[in-house]
From TrEMBL:
Its main location: membrane. It comes from Pongo abelii. The gene is LY6D. The lineage of its organism: Eukaryota, Metazoa, Chordata, Craniata, Vertebrata. It is a lipid-anchor; GPI-anchor. GO terms for cellular component: cell surface; plasma membrane; side of membrane. This is LY6D isoform 1. InterPro entries: CD59_antigen_CS (IPR018363), LY6_UPA_recep-like (IPR016054), Ly6D (IPR042339), Snake_toxin-like_sf (IPR045860), Toxin/TOLIP (IPR035076). One of its GO terms (biological process) is lymphocyte differentiation. Pfam families: Toxin_TOLIP.
Amino acid sequence: MRTVLLLLAALAVATGPALALRCHVCTSSSNCKQPAVCPASSRFCKTMNTVEPLKGNLVKKDCAESCTPNYTLQGQVSSGTGSIQCCQEDLCNEKLHNAAPTRTALAHSALSLGLALSLLAIVLAPSL
């Protein structure tokens, strides 16, 4: 019985970080919103704002394995330049200017571990 519970706890911890991130994935001249499930390797939602010479403003939202933010001050964007914003929560790239901090997968792992340990404590408590 204990072996089964330990296997269930290990499974809960292992599957926690495997939950797929959801991001808006689209390209538009304005703030687009198209939710999509990201590949398992993606850890970030990414928003890139650029100024294209003949097209004007271009907003591209996507899933990303890695992301390095690059913020430009308003009024300092010239042709071909822009900003990159990164976040790590479901659909966090909804707004063009997202102030949400990036988080690591550690938060998801800690939640899964806490859940598994709580379940294990509840099941084993009567036998102690």
